[in-house]
User: Fold this.
Amino acid sequence: MKLKRTSKINSIIAMFITTSVFLMGQQKIDNPFGLVYQDAITENLPGKVNIHPVHYLLQGIEISANVYTPANFNPAKSYPVIVVAHPNGGVKEQVAGLYAQRLAESGYITIAADASYQGASGGEPRNTDKPAFRIEDIRGMADYITQYAGADAQRLGLLGLCGGGGYSLAAAQTDKRFKAVATLSMFNSGMVRRNGFRDSQLETIQERLKQASDARAQEAAGGEVRYMADSATTDEMADQMPFDLYREGHYYYHRTHAHPNSTFRYTTASLIDLMAFDANDRMALINQPLLMMAGSKADTYYMTESAFKLATGTDNKELFLIEGATHIQTYYVPEYVEKAASKLGEFFDRYL
Assistant:
C-alpha cells in the first residue's frame, strides 16, 4: 500500500515538473518598469532609490539588467556593490528585483539581470538552461557593475536566490572578486534535475538522459527544439502537489507575481549539462564569508543544510533560519522579507 502511494506521489511530482508557467490571461503589469512586487519603484524620484535599465554584451549575447542606486546617489562617491542572481524560471523583475531594491535602500549599488537565453536577455534557442551559462551570467554581472560609476570593485558581494543561489555558490568557489556570499532558499538545480525533488525520480535518470541526448541530436540536425516543462497547469493540479515548493510556486509565478518573461520551460537538451552539475561539488573552495538563509518550514532546506556543511574552507559562515517561512514565502511575504533583508544588511555591512 505504501509503495503504491509513493508511486502516485512521484507521478504527481513528475507531472508538475513537466508543466510550464505559460498561462493565458496573466495579470496586467501597470508599472512602467515591469516590476511585479509590492512597493516596487514606479518612477525615479530625487532622494529615493533609483532604477536604471541597462544592456551589455556577454559572450556575444545582449543581457538585460536593472541597476539600483541608493538614495541621493553621487557617482563621485564610492559605494559597495552586490550582484543578485534570480531563481530558476524567474526574472529580474520578481524576487531578485525586490532584494536588489531592499539592499539599495541600505546603501548598496545592486544589479539584477535576466539570465542569458532567458527573460529579456538574448540567446537562442530560447530558455536554454545550462549551469555554465548561469555561472557566467553571475560573473558578467560582476564585470559590468564593478565598472559602474561610483562602484567600489573591492567591496563586491553576491546574493543568490533559489537556483541562483546554487549557481552563486559555484561562481564564488573560483571567482574571488566576490568578498562575501549569501544565499536565500538555495536550490541545487543539478541535483534536483538529476534525482528529482527529494530523490523522487532516481529510477528515471537514464531514461531522461536518453531524452536529452536525443533532443540534442535533433537540434544538431536542424530539427525542432524540444522543451521540458512546456504544458499548462491549473490551480487544481497545483493543489495536488505534495510539496509546498511546487504548490506555492505555482501561485507565485502564475498568479500573484506573474510576469510575461518568466517561465519554467527549458530545453530538453539542457538536461545533459544540468544533470552533471551539483552545487555541493567543491564547496570547500569557498573561503569568503558565507551566509546561507532558508525558511524553517522550507521543504528545500535539506539543500541549504547539505551545502553549508560542505563549506569547510571558510571560518566565517552562518546558517540563518527564517522562522515559520516556506521556500516561496521568503520571496514576498513582508514579515519574512524583512527578516531576510535585515540579516543581509548586517552581513554585507560587516564584510563589505
